[in-house]
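<goal> How does this chain fold?
<sample>
Here is the protein in question

***
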Amino acid sequence: MEFLPSPRPSPIAGNWYSGDPVRLRSEIEVFINSAKISDDEFSGEVFGIISPHAGYRYSGKTAGYAYKTIQGLQHDIVVILSPFHQYFPADLITTPFESYKTPIGEVPVAVQLLNELADSLAIDGFPVVQVERDQEHSLEIQLPFLQCALAGDFRILPLMVRTRDETQLQKLADALMHVLKDRSFLVVASTDLSHFYPLDIAQQMDAEMLRRIKAMDADGVLSAEREGVASACGASSVAVLLNMAGKITTSKTYILNYSTSADETGDISSVVGYGSVAIFI
């Protein structure tokens, strides 16, 4: 793959989150520091987190719980798995830019590692396709949180996952574990939960999805929408994370927080659900 030396400009700064770096950092620090969790609740090290991707006004508080678990940690590589909300005829998408730009600064892409991953997947007939002018928010919106939560520099592996084919998603999980071997890494899966149901129905559906995530049931996460019992726009991203963590016998999943857009708007007639999750090993 070929990469552009200029940073990917943000299409959502100033809209989905503040475009002012001081205000943005301050808001994120409040979200993280307000999360009421204790280290005594968990054992082991964080392998990955699941975080929502709505505008910070709506889901920032819930995202803060996930990022609280990695506050002050150092990782060389952060894999960010997200959906791709626009139509594009590819199953797995990444950026052609060498870095992403947010108001807080630039986040470099792990170009060599991304090429290694693409080469590995190409052998299995699963190409990684670069898209230059994407408007995708769900991957980028995790970056300022990572910039504020993690200590030290890090590079990202940005992957936007469109396929819901279990075999392909398992191949992606296998390939990621292979290229990340012996590296210090964190996996972030970006997803919201149910969309635009009345509050009581949304809560039922989201509880079912979170139950499947807690059970580390990757296939159940993928089949929930087909069954009509739950939904998540980033179900494929979550499934890849669960498949990766499932290769480690000590992994354990914790549901950290749940909220809906009604908490911010007061409108219970049509809500979006948000959950934050951490996987420890």
